[in-house]
Structures are given as structure tokens and as C-alpha cells.
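Page 42, continued from yesterday. The earlier attempt failed because a stray header line got pasted into the input along with the sequence. Redoing it now with the clean sequence only.
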Amino acid sequence: MKTKTILLFFIIVSCSDNVDQITIADKPDTNFKNQHYVSNREPLVPSSLIKLPVGSIEPDGWLLEYLKRQKNGLTGNLVDISQWLQKKDNAWLSEKGEGEWGWEEVPYWLKGYANIGYILNDEAMISEAKVWLEGAINGQRNDGFFGPSFAWESYDFNRTEEDYIKNNQTIDFWPNMIMLYCLQSYYEYSNDERVINLMTKYFKFQNSIPENSLLSKDKYWARRRAGDNLHSVIWLYNRTGDKWLLELAEKIHKKSVRWESRGNSLDKIESPKTLREGYEWPSWYGDLIDWHNVNIAQGFREPAQYYLLSGNKQHLDATYENFNIIREHFGQVPGGMFGSDEYSRPGYDDPRQAIETCGMVEQMNSDEHMLRITGDIFWADHVEEVAFNNYPAAVMPDFRSLRYLTSPNMVIRDSESHYPGIVYPGPFLMFNPLSQRCCQHNHAQGWPYFAENLWMATPDNGLAAVIYASSTVNAKVGNGTNIKIKNVTNYPFENKLRFKINLDKEDHFPIYFRVPSWAENASFKINGKNQNVELEAGKYLKIYRKWYNEDTVEIDLPKLLSVKRWKKNHNSVSINYGPLTFSLKIKENVIKKSSTETAIFDARWQKNVDLDRWPAYEIHPGSDWNYGLIIGDSINNYFEVVEKKWPINNFPFTQKDSPIIIKARGKKINNWKTDETGLTGELMDSPVKSDELTEPIELIPMGTTRLRISSFPVIE
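This time it went through. C-alpha cells are written below.
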């Protein structure tokens, strides 16, 4: 590990017997092995950070409020709404895996639902989750397989006996990959050894399958998302040490699609291939094996996960390349995601192009995986970018409905089809609790997984504060000392982080604090005393000392206004303030609609659902949106940050309750209108000439908006 020593010995006056070592680190030191938490066994490459067991971190503030809204909203009630989650005739509750209902939907939902229960210590949620977990455990067959025997990945609701026979010729491991996540969380919460037994038996079954049948080409999703399977194999190996698991890991990687390959021919890319009229297939299109947004957000990390076994840096580099390729060509937009509604298509790269809610939460999960593997602050910065700016706009503030697609520039949320501006016809832009089958269930993981990764253990028996939100962590450090650290903050809406440390005994150990890449001129205090140490943006502050009960650390991360220029997307700009991106404030006219009449074709709901309690919504603009920004020579001359009181409801992700606004100046661009498909008109090259009068306009955090312009033309 490359570490720059700033101050080797620093004497704290209040603790004269205590010698401090304060350094700036690129990442935690992996030359140690944590004595309290499960780390990578040899011969695996050690991970820089170690996930704490679920329940170790208690969120507070706005994050706790968000989880409560999930519980009381769609996530907490979906088991009584979705037909995919009905208990009657559900293959996930059958000892033989038989039933009409059963594929990815149950584990998608359970992955978030159960973890919210563990985090909130909600007995009712934990009890409901246990029903499905017991179903998975009791449904393991003698050969080791578990879950639905008929892996339904077709949208054909009129399946025949021939369909069953055909689909059972190859095994679909994809839905089980998700359920393995659920089982791992349950084990961390309960220490139920049946999970270890199930996974061991299941992976022996996988390992016994001839290589040409494992992750068959007939099962599209499994091969592209095999990194999830690989993750679970490594998770089990670290707990049992069974060497045959490494053999299985090699097989899984070999049968996964080649995410590390480049220059694939079109026939190798199995995503639906569409090209905008007038365009030719670009040379770079073959640099990824798949262009489906969720597959990219979820699958791009597989080479890095395999790197833990191979030790070959080329595999780690391949994951970074995957990330950069998609953002080079479709990610020239604010908010951390990329244009792919639902497939990235050459010629469709404007910020009006959207991303699935599934894509957002899977990207967040991938960022968290990559952060643990590498310790690279880049991934912590990115998960915050997606979580704070994009993800909140995908759901209504009460978390009772969601939409399939969300984009940085969107000025209509209606029940109409916007094909071919959007890749498929259908009502994909509106908020509906019954629709968008995959995202309807998969949205649940976003915030609980975010909460679980705020803090991580380090190989040197310390802790790292890697993602910021008000929370309390309970862990073991040093020589087995029990520690509780409370972080009091309204981050990302304020600058200050306040950490209060409680210990059952004094002990020496390190605590790492992430300094975000945008945080220039950050500073900190220990026990109220300023420290004359220069922090570096994009690195960790590492404090190794003898810690005492009620010690405190305060970190100040000054936010500065900045302009991000998207040169490859018409030279447009977005406005940032620390980790927050800002959007034009557009008046939102919310129109209640029937959720059944506006659902897409594959929506299924239970007969007894009170549909009056679960309406759908369109949102139409009630004010002009076609503004370009006046930037000028200095951003401080044309933009003013106004901070407001923190909302009483502890929920800052609405227009009304946003604690920060930015006053700006702009001009209308009269020929910037919605196009023939009903979507926001595409950007024009900046600078743009406008003869309209200069007007004051307001910008609000991107995550508080359901309609928004986030990527702006620049006025000449």
C-alpha cells in the first residue's frame, strides 16, 4: 500500500500519554488479516475492506426515514399486491420447486425487504421474510438444487407442457443467484448453519454439472450476471475453506460471458441490436459483450470478482474499462448513470435517454462490491452520486409507486408510449405500483444495501467510514474491543460530519475516514482541537491512536459550486455543489390514474388488492422548462447558494422540503420543445443564441425532482 505520512507522531494535549499516527492513505493496508470478521482466505487476493454483518449499522436521519417509507410503502406491502409474491402455488414455497409463480421476483423483493427488517429490527418483517427463507431451505432437493424447478424467463403467459419440457432441458441458475444473497444476509443476522449446509450442497451440485451445461447459452441472464454466482462461491469459501469451491469459481468464470474481452463482432453481442436511422455501427460497439442496462450495471464487475482468485491485474483493469466504455459513449450525462432505456443504442445518447430503476440499484450494489475489493474511493463517490441524484427520482416520495425509466432530462411522466424515442412501446415513464415487473420487486435493495455499506472493517482490525449518512455502527476493533461510533450529520446537504466514539475499553486501532474526490480544503478536529494536517481529496484520513471512550472526530467537507461540461453531449453543462447535482425546478402537476388501466403488459396483481390505496400517477409540467444557463466567466457571479432550514419531516428529497436551492440566470430557448415522440427535445450544440430576456431561475437537487432538466444548453 502506498501511504504518504503527513505527521508520524502528534501529541494530543488532552491525552498526554497517547501518541497519534495520522496519515493519508490511498486505501487500507491489506498486509494484515482482520481477527474479528471473515476475510478472504488464501490463495484469494485480500480485499481492502470487509463488509460488516447485516444489523451492525443503524441508520438515522433522512436515511432512516427513507427506510421507514419503504416499509410503509410498496416494499413493505408488495407481498399483498404482487401476484408473483402470492403464497398459493408459489414455487419458492414448494418442497419440489413446483408452482405457477416463481422466478426472479421473490428473491428480488426479499433481497431488500428482509434486510430492511433486520436493519429496523422489525419483527413482523423478519417473520414474513422467514416464511420465504424457510421455503428456500426446505425446498432443497436431494441433488442439491433448490428453488423453482421450472425457471420461467419467458413472458408467455400461456405456457404449454412442451414449454416445461423444453425449458427443463437446461437449468437456469439466475433466480438462485439472487436468493443466495438473501440467504447470506439471513446467515449474517441469525448464524443459522442451515444456510452453510444448503450452499455447500448446492455448489457441489453446480460443480458436478458438465462444463458445457453450466450457465448454458440458453439462459441469457445467468451468463451475463454470473458475477453474483461467483461472489456467493467466494463468500462460502471464506467460511468453510473447501478447496473444491475454487475449482467451481474457475468454471463459473469460464462459462460467464467474456466481460473482459473487447472488439466483439455483432453476432457475439446478444442484446437486441437496434441502430438509429442514418447511423452506422460504430467500431467501439463491440467493446462490451452486452448493452442491456441492467446487465452492464450488474455484470461489468465479474472480471474484478474473478481477480480475487486469479490475482491477474488485467481482470481488475477490465472492470474499470467496462465502466469507462459505457460512460464514454452513453454516460455523458449527470447523475452517475447512462442512457439505456432499456438497451444502449448507437445514436441515442442524449440526456433524455433513461435508465431502469433496476439499473440504478444494481449499479449501487456493484459500486459497493468494487469498493470492498479495491478500497478505491472512486466507487464510494460513485455510489453516492447515483444514490443522491438519480435513485430518489425513480420513486414517489411516499415510496408507494415507482417508474421503470428515469432520465436526467425529463419533462413528462405520462402513460403514453414514447417509441421509438424509448426502445420499446408502452407506458414506461409513469409511476405505477403494479407495473414494471422486474423493477417493481428489485427496487427494494437500493437503500438497505446502501445503509449496510456505510461502514466497513479494515484488514488491520480497524474501521472505515466509507459512505456518509447519519448512522451508528457497532463493531469489534483492535484487541476485540466493542466500539460504537455515532455519526451525526445531514450529509449530503451539509458539510459537517460529527463522530462520537464509545468503547468498552481503551484500545489502539485505526479509523479511516473517506475524503471525497470533490472535497478540496477539507479539515478535521480530534476532541475539539484543529489538526494541522492537510487532507487530500480522493484519499483516506487514517487516524491510528489509542482511543478513549467519548473521543470525538469532526470532519468538515466544504462544498463548492462547480460546472461539469459534457463536451461529447453537445457541450452541455450541469451544476454541482459537493456530491449533489442540481436541476431546473419545474412545477409538477400530479394526476392520479388507475394503476390497472395504465399497467404494462406483464403486470400481475392479486385479486384482493385495494386498488384505491395503490393508484398510479402521471406528472405534467406546470411551468416552462426550456431554459439554457448563463454561465459567465465565474460561477460565483451568476449562481447563489441558498440554504434553508432542515425539514421537520426529516425528508429532504422533495421540491418543497429541499434544504438547498441555487439561484441562477437563464434564457428560454424557444425552439427547444418536446419532439414527435413526446420526449424532451434533444440538446442542441452549445453555446446557443437566444433573443429572450434573461430570467432568474431556481435549481434544486436532482434527487428532489420527478421532472427535471439537469443537463443544460449554455447561452451564448
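Notes: Residues 352 and 474 are 43 Å apart (CA to CA).
Reminder to self: strip header lines before submitting.
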